[in-house]
Amino acid sequence: MAGVRGKRGAASQGDDESSENAARRHPLGRRSESVRGTTGAGSGRQAVIPSGNVQYIASPSGFARSRLYFALIGGVEQTAPTFALERDRYHAFEMIYITKGRGSFRYGETEYELGPGDGVVYDMRLPHAFRADPSDPYEMRYVVFQGTDLDKQWGAWFEAPCVALPAGGEKEPRYAALLLLVLEEMARGALEREPYVSGLLYELLMEALSADRTAPAERGAAAPPALDSGRRYLEERYAEADADIHGAARVAGLSYYHFIRQFKRYYGSSPKEFLTKIRLGHAKRALLHTDLSVAEAAEAAGFGSYNAFLHTFLQHEGCSPTFYRKAWRRPPAE
Question: Maximum distance among all alpha carbons in the chain?
Fold first, then answer.
């Protein structure tokens, strides 16, 4: 079980002795406040925003633990000026979102300065620590969660065990809203809502993944005009078999390797992945909406040979172009 060291934020004056003992027993070392939720999430409306220091402690069913993603602990914490929390490890994952104030978060050897709108989602199995700014201690919303195969899936999704989500990113409103919905469901504590909570946690991770696919320094930033000209070259000349990354780099006025690095920073994928996606998209549309043969569809989409097209198609679609056409092509309207 995780070891917890350091000072914790002051509790609300309403805590009685039993809740004090329960807080001390809890492995994460945060104090809880009794909360009864009376409203549900969904139906396209916004979640109810909890006020004050609140903590929801969930008891997932065996079904959820064996088949779903599930929340363990979540809530809102207004930290005290002296707040400092250091944790060796805990076998779960956590997302935090700062609503006001300032502080820091240390993960391994990396320290993150946090302010309003900043978020972090991370694997709790490595040492980490929180500290509030004494002059402006932060308030944070948080949820600790786990899930079936999430340990393995995290490594498939994220390149690092800790993902910083800076304020002002395109995805911030979405993952902030999802976190509120999770907390609202935790307040209800209804077992029949566990599949819904699992879906919310999955969405939360996907929003974090989407935000993480662009480097933090470039989130929301427009690509330099030279780089954009290289991207347009690929979009406009995809059908030419000799149109390649070297040509796009020349148009952009960048070296081959610098173009690749910059492209991935701003667009979230390599130029090769980008060009392949364009060519596959055009080839699939030709298979479904024209009478071109498979070889002709490949040539029209810019693939240099039938074999290259077949290999790429099998790799990305998991089936042959012929099977894809038979499975998805609709008969002509009468």
Answer: 77
The dihedral of CA 34, 40, 42, 48: what is its sign?
negative
Pairwise CA distance, residues 12 & 31, whole Å: 9
User: Residue 1, Cβ neighbours under 10 Å: how many?
Assistant: 9
Quote the domain boundaries for residue 290. Answer: 225-328
Tens of pLDDT, residue by residue over 97-116, are 999 999 999 998 899 999 99
Calpha distance 43→35 (Å, rounded): 23
- Contact yes or no for 185/74 (Cβ under 8 A): no
pLDDT of residue 283: 96
Q: Which residues contact 272 (CB under 8 A, 6 or more apart)?
A: 245
Taking the C-alpha atoms of residue 201 and residue 186, their distance in angstroms, rounded to an integer, is 12
By the 10 Å C-beta count (0-12 exposed, 13-18 middle, 19+ buried), 110 is classed as exposed
Contacts of 99 (CB under 8 A, 6+ apart): 76, 116, 138, 139, 140, 141
The yes-or-no verdict on residue 198 having pLDDT over 50 is yes
Residue 62 has pLDDT above 70, yes or no: yes
Rounded-to-integer distance, Cα 235 and Cα 303, Å: 14
Domain CATH number, residue 8: 2.60.120.280
Average the pLDDT over 265-291 and give the result.
92
Under a CB-based contact definition with an 8 Å cutoff, are residues 124 and 87 in contact?
yes
Do residues 230 and 175 share a domain? no
Residues 6+ apart with CB under 8 A from 1: 27, 90
Domain boundary pick from 189, 217, 245: 217
Burial of 155-176, coded b for 16+ CB within 10 Å and e otherwise, reads: eeebeebbbbbbeebebbebbb
- Strand segments, DSSP code E, in the chain are 4-5, 54-57, 69-78, 84-87, 93-100, 103-107, 110-114, 119-123, 128-132, 139-147, 162-165
pTM above 0.70, yes or no: no
